[in-house]
Each structure stands twice: as C-alpha cells, then as structure tokens.
Amino acid sequence: EKGGFRSFMDKEIHDQPHAVADTLLGRTDATGRLVLDEMRIDESVLRAVDKIVVVACGTAAYAGHVAKYAIEHWCRIPVEVELAHEFRYRDPVVNERTLVVAVSQSGETMDTLMAVRHAKEQGATTLAIVNTHGSTIPRESDAALYTHAGPEIAVASTKAFLAQITAAYLLGLYLAQLRGNKFADEIALVLDELREIPDKIQQVLDRAGRVREIARWMVDTQSVLFLGRHVGYPVAMEGALKLKELAYIHAEGFAAGELKHGPIALIEPGQPVFVVVPSPRGRDSLHSKIVSNIQEIRARGARTLVIAEEGDEAVRPFADEVFTVPQTSTLLAPLLTVVPLQIFACELATAKGLDVDQPRNLAKSVTVE
Ligand code: M6R
C-alpha cells in the first residue's frame, strides 16, 4: 500500500501534486466563477463578516498563518490565527460578525473542536477546512470546505498541509469575489496560477536528489534553524516542526526580521540554517531584506541552505546550497517552498534509522485536550 515507497510519509510527499489538484477540482462554474458548493453559509452573513479567526494546532495552524497573509491581501478583512488551545482559554473577542475557520486534517483534534464550540457559543459563524469526511469538527461547524488530499496515514502531516493551504486560498478568493472588492478582477488570474502549481510541485519532487543527499550527510546534526519572511515564515516554522517530530533534532523557525532581536546570538561557525527566500520578482524590499539576513548569518559562520526561486542569482554568492523551486507569485510560494523541507526531514530521519510514519510520543490525531 506504500506504492513502492519506503514509508507512507514518502508516498504522501509524492502524492502532493494530486492533493492540490484534487482540492482545486470542480470549484468553478462554466463562466469561471468560484462556486464553493459545500459552503452552506448565507451569502449575506459572509458579506457582513468583519473579522476572521483561524483556529488550529500544529501544522494546520501554519496553514492558517499562510491563509492570513493571502486572505487579508485579497479581501481586506482582518484575519487572526490562534492556536486552538490558547483561543479557548482566554476571553477572545468573537461575535456574530466573526467567521471562525477551524483547520484540521483529522477533523477530530479535541483542542480545535473545543475552540469551535466556544466560537459558536459566542455567536460566531464557523467553517471547517477538513480532510476527513464524517468527522466531528465539520459536523459541528456551520459549514465545511473539504480538502481532497485522500487519507493521510503518516503521523507527520504533508499532503494535508498543502491541501489546507489550497483550500484557504479558495476561501480567500471566494470571499473576495462575493464582496466584489477591487481585487475581484484578478481572481481568475490567481486561479490559473493555482492550477499550474501541481506540475510545479512535481518539478520540485523531481529535483529533490540534492536535498536528500545533504540530509543523509547531516545525521549527526544537533540543531537546525529555519528562517523566513512573509509567507516564508510559517514555512520556516513548519520545516522546523517536521525536523523535530521526525528526526528528534532541535529545530526552530524564526521570522528572519527577528534575527537581530535575539536569535542571531545562536549563530556560530557551522550552524546549519535553512532560509526560505521570496521571489525576487515580488515586492523588491522583501527579497533584498532576506538576502541581507543571509549575508549577516553567513558572516558569522552559518552554513546557509537556501530555498529560492529559479533564476534568483542574488542569493547564490551567500549560499552554501541552493534548492530551487519554479517561479510563482509570492503568496502561492509556500506550496512549493515547503516541499524540500519535508523531504529533508523525512530523509534525515530515515537515514537515522527512525520510523518516520510513527514518531515516538505522537499520535496521528490528538483526541484529548
Ligand atoms: O488533524 P489535525 O490537522 O487537527 O492535527 C493537528 C496537529 O496535531 C497536526 O498537524 C500535528 O502537528 C502533526 N503531527 C504535524 O505533522
């Protein structure tokens, strides 16, 4: 059932082009307008929403972070992302005009379910972005937007993460369409670009030989840092989480702008640092800022492992290794840039002889608080 792969995780990483393509399938009508059939929420309610709160845990919460950047940009609605277990135990400002979006692969995560219940009690509208049909979170939510990643067996989430990000983009584009804002004309262009993503993920998979090789050399590494800015920041945190849970290596993801506020003190000669670089064709300042971050850590001896867009020559002089991904717009890039990090963690853990499908102390779905 592993389809010739060494592990379910390896297989699921390779399933990602399908997970994204299937999640995009059948979402537009004959005129190209987005139709999210499962969204059983009245359009007038969605038009009146003045705040979105994404609640989730772990990897699903990082998908929520990406969603925040995209939805705020496209819809101009404020989006907060909160770990579900924190949301519930404070006194969050949530009311009838709040849309609470619960993101979950299993649909059974107790912390996330309790957050949904709390949101409903406050009168919020609740929407579940979930992979598992018939699970509890979509059943208790006002509406569901299903990801079509197929069953995810490995404890570490990979293809569900990409499908969650894809579904979150669809939600953002749908809300922009519904509210007819100034971005509405560009929706079709973003959808076209999204449809090209599965092929581009395949290209990243096809050229993963080098990242696998580096991972195998790094079996004795004690600590790896991950840096990103903008949507690269949640990608960095996800890269770190994958390495912790699979390879039991200390790993931390930082927003690159935070470096000089503390974490740069961690840099000593030989420290491996992955850096997720945004497209140089996007906002200029974003790219040049991260290039200077790479220079800063390189000057202090860091070993820089850079994930950058094809054709980005500016990063090369400061990178010990460059793993390239095909060109896409800045907001969609996480669907490509996270893939080498998943492969790195999976390969390194496998090389250490660890069971990547069943890491120690972890369960696939956490059904206790
Ligand atoms: O089933 P869920 O998406 O609600 O699960 C949330 C987290 O428990 C999950 O993403 C966890 O962080 C994974 N082990 C990450 O690989």
TrEMBL record:
Leading EC class: transferase
Domain SIS positions: 41-181, 214-359
Active site residues according to the UniProt entry: 364 (for fru-6p isomerization activity)
Subcellular localization(s) per the UniProt record: Cytoplasm
UniProt entry keywords in alphabetical sequence: Aminotransferase, Cytoplasm, Glutamine amidotransferase, Repeat, Transferase
Enzyme Commission code: 2.6.1.16
Domain of life: Bacteria
Reaction catalysis annotation: D-fructose 6-phosphate + L-glutamine = D-glucosamine 6-phosphate + L-glutamate
Gene Ontology molecular function: carbohydrate derivative binding; glutamine-fructose-6-phosphate transaminase (isomerizing) activity
GO CC term (a single one): cytosol
GO biological process: amino sugar biosynthetic process; carbohydrate metabolic process; fructose 6-phosphate metabolic process; protein N-linked glycosylation; UDP-N-acetylglucosamine metabolic process
Oligomeric and partner information: Homodimer.
Protein's job: Catalyzes the first step in hexosamine metabolism, converting fructose-6P into glucosamine-6P using glutamine as a nitrogen source.
Protein name: Glutamine--fructose-6-phosphate aminotransferase [isomerizing]
Organism, as annotated: Cellulomonas shaoxiangyii
Gene: glmS
Part of the intact protein present: 250 to 618 of 618
